[in-house]
Specification:
The protein is an alpha/beta fold. It is built from 13 helices and 14 strands. It folds into three domains: 70 residues, Winged helix-like DNA-binding domain superfamily/Winged helix DNA-binding domain (Arc Repressor Mutant, subunit A), CATH 1.10.10.10; 151 residues, ATPase, nucleotide binding domain (Nucleotidyltransferase, domain 5, 2-Layer Sandwich), CATH 3.30.420.40; 151 residues, Nucleotidyltransferase, domain 5 (2-Layer Sandwich). Helices cover 44% and strands 19% of the residues. A five-stranded mixed beta sheet has the order 5-4-3-6-9, with helices on both faces. A five-stranded mixed beta sheet has the order 12-11-10-13-14, with helices on both faces. Strands 1-2 form a two-stranded antiparallel ribbon.
Length: 404
Amino acid sequence: MAVRGTPSWLGDQNAATALRLLLGHGPLSRNGIGERSGLSKPTAAQMIARLEEKGLIEVVGEESIGRGPSAALYGVRNDLAYGVAVNVDQDGVRSTLVDLKGTAHPVASRAASGMPADRSAARDVAGAVLGACESAGVDLAAIRHVCVGVPSSVDPRSDELSSVQALPGWSRKSIRHQIEEALGCEVQVDNDVNLAAVAERRAADFAPGATVALLWVGYGIGLAVDVAGTVLRGASGGAGEIGNLPVPRGVFDPDSDAPDLEGLLGAAALDRIGREAGWSDHTFEQVLAGETLPQRVLEVYAPRLAQSVIPVLGVLDPDLVVFGGPVGRSGGTLLAELTRTAIRNHTRWDPAVRTTRVAGDAVLDGARAVLGDRLREALVARAAGTVSEDDRSRIIAARLRGIS
């Protein structure tokens, strides 16, 4: 690492500036880097030379500059490091490779019913990484970072999960440490709804400073709060864990005896509503299969859902409430409209409510976005000389094959 203030250190800082430009704008010539950085052409040439020396960029084409010779276009190498995004939930494990360019790689899936009895966090994630690499045709040694979404809050102070009810074989203690020790690379474990909120902002047209409340409605109910692009996690990682909030009596649904919001809105409750409405005895299964909930079911469900929105309005007063998860998607615009009407009819609030704009697996998409940022940060750090490549890549392949 160069000493701060020396010519070598300054050269590294300039190289990092050039790399940021290439990551942000795509391939550029020396002149293009000079123009965008505000530095001289000789300095831009030195920046390119330094990045080539570090093995971080390559010539990817040519740029015509009039009657003179064409100029070389430089781009960031996409094969330097990869990450794997993982979503573990009640249905199984899904994973996909993440690269610097944001390429859409295949998703590897493994259903919960087909997983071994001796599951653990390390085995589940190792299998997911192996599956993602095999699907994308990438060697395990290239993996540097893994991001795992789980249906639980994660305490950053103790590295502990709040619940493993949906994660058979997993222990609550030292969850990130367990997986990092097994894989030999950097691992981030995050709440699934928090990651979905990251994907929601990337997919939607939120104002930069907007506060957005994402209510995830699926097996249970969860909340993620995005304030100007930052997801609030709370001191113990438990911000948004609203499923255990008690249900006020006699306001929207006087006949309900559910003790908390999860009992009022979760999968079992939706099945009961569907059965009583004469639609289906297995309503939640049909939701998971992608079927649209009929109006007669939503007319009963929406007032209940309003009870989960009202505390959010009273505490946060968000610019927008978004319904995500399988039930939010299945209910669509009608669920949003009916819920908003129930809130307006019983309170002073009139919130903006809409359904998710994320088309695919929101948790996996959020993990991909987090990893893309992390990969770029790590590459810029290498250009700046603040970190160096080590042999951890050799460790992960051996460890993964040993435990999966």
